[in-house]
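Suppose a colleague, Dr. K., hands you the sequence of a protein chain of 477 amino acids and asks what its three-dimensional shape might be. Before reaching for any lab equipment, you can write down a predicted structure in token form. Begin with the sequence itself:
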Amino acid sequence: MRLMYAVILIAAFLSGCASTDWSSDTPTKANSRSSRAARVNLKNQSVSKVYAPSDNLWIRIRDGFEMEPMNTPQELDQVRWLSARPDYVNRSMTRSSRYLFYIVQEVNARNMPTEIALLPFVESAFVTSAKSSAKAVGLWQFMPATGKDFKLTQNVFRDERRDIVQSTDAALDYLQRLNNQFGSWELALAAYNWGAGNILKAQKRNIAAGLPTDYESLTLPNETRNYVPKLMAYRQIVLDPKAYGITLPELENHPYFIAVDVGSDIDVSLAIKLAEIPPEEFQSLNPSFNKPVILSNANQQILLPFAHAEIFQDNLKKYNKPLSSWTAVQVSKTESVDQTAKSLGVDADTLREVNAIPKGMRIKAGSTVLIPKTSRRPGDVSSALAESASLSLEKPPPPVPKCPKPVKGAKNTKAAKCAPVKASKNTVSTAFKGNSSANNAASQHKSASTGLAKSAKNASSATSSSKTSSKGGSKSQ
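The predicted structure, expressed as tokens, is then:
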């Protein structure tokens, strides 16, 4: 009934909605990209006040196309490859339905061509869990170092490279910077894939040889050479899907999700329960959460489907029990999991499981661990830990061998010399600090998109095969 009620409310007020500006009147938190999503503060706003027109989003996308078709052999090859795999394309298109409105809204707000909104098809096939062999993740395939450059938090509690809103805005920031640098979207996209430094070097080589420096004139690796043609192939399919045997999902021109502020720490399982949505739907909209709790002190929001945000609001008002069963502490000394659990007064198996600590590893001093709330520690996770938490693990040093005892009565017996054993240096860090090496600076990430055929068979699995690229890139098919 609530869902029907929400639909009726939206329909009743459509005629009064002359604007397609989906920003709310809610004061926004500092430096919050999520403020750009349709957003509701549950303390003083009603979800039902956010209304939506119901125009066709695909028409809006087509109307915003600005890039010229390349009509090159590479583009024709990419069109043939996609049109020969309609099931794969259809699944990718269906997955995109949750995210495209927000991406298109942001692309339009920046006066960028709407072809850019299709780039996650190339990067990740709109699989939020996509992860390349070079550790690039998310819809836009951010490498750790580039994510850090664009202030995407990567810590124990969350990885904003997977956050729908944060990663989208960071990717568009990056693409705008590259377009300003190179003066064309084709070169900006090539730099996004291969690295700005590599594109500059390729241009310098052409200048030295007296050759043009546009995208098609540069000598590029195969992946980058096919990167823009692959995007343009998706453009062709969106323009005329029937010509390629593709069926586009129906997409209305309104937000699929609403960003709801987190006023107190709340368990993920409880948020799912209050929103009355399947866990898979919640995960598809909130893939950045690494732990079973969402933190209020991390300036986080929960993305919920448009109609279910009101259901969540109603259920939250009626809920009178604790919202969170977890807190976090920083350990003061290096110990085994059993020792740490004992000193914290928690179950060792729970400590190991919730923090994903392999057996046999020790927790290093200064690490942050998530633990169940107790009467000793009832509070929410502090701002300091929410923003900077890291977990570092190490293998314990091997035991020092015991010296054999001399045999009594034995003649000419010398005590065996026992050489000291150096402590193991095997240390594992899960702090998500990002690699800022020169190599990563030049080549941002390896793309997840040419494991595309494999991910088509399993929509929930990340595309795994990849090639080196600059920030978010594609793979060769």
